[in-house]
Specification:
single chain, alpha+beta, 2,3-Dihydroxybiphenyl 1,2-Dioxygenase, domain 1, eight-stranded mixed β-sheet, 3 helices, binds cobalt (II) ion
Length: 135
């Protein structure tokens, strides 16, 4: 497994429109993607920064993973996502080294990318997402 890039840093927000307006005012940046990902219970926006993105996540409801995160922790850093070339190979490497996987198999995330999550209790209290982008 080789990590290609820091694909994105994800931040949980209560109000995506307000967060995007604030990012624009403070940092003069705009999103390039915005979409509802029903399977993850979020509406997300991707703001490009260099070769990476800031991903803003607004839950579709209180009873979603990000909704529960907001209840417990409030707004803030939710996960970091690394781009990989071969997500199956990355997952088997992680499994072999004893990682605590949330997703044993990749699923489809925003941008049509194949993604998988690694549990925050596995390493340094950080929820990690692997992303395999379509060529
Ligand atoms: Co993400």
């Amino acid at each position: 497994m080789r990590l290609l890039n820091l694909d994105h840093v994800a931040i949980a927000v209560r109000d995506l429109d307000a967060a995007l307006a604030a990012y624009k005012e403070r940092y003069l940046v705009d999103p390039v993607y915005r979409e509802v990902v029903e399977q993850q219970g979020v509406e997300e926006a991707m703001i490009p920064v260099g070769g990476s993105f800031v991903q803003l996540l607004q839950p579709l409801g209180a009873d979603t993973p990000v909704g529960k995160f907001l209840d417990r922790h409030g707004e803030g850093l939710h996960h970091v996502a690394y781009a990989v070339t071969d997500i199956e190979a990355a997952l088997s490497h992680l499994k072999e080294t004893g990682a605590r996987l949330i997703d044993e198999q990749p699923r489809v995330g925003g941008r049509g990318a194949r993604i998988a999550f690694v549990h925050p209790a596995d390493l340094a209290g950080t929820l990690v997402e692997l992303v395999e982008l379509r060529p």
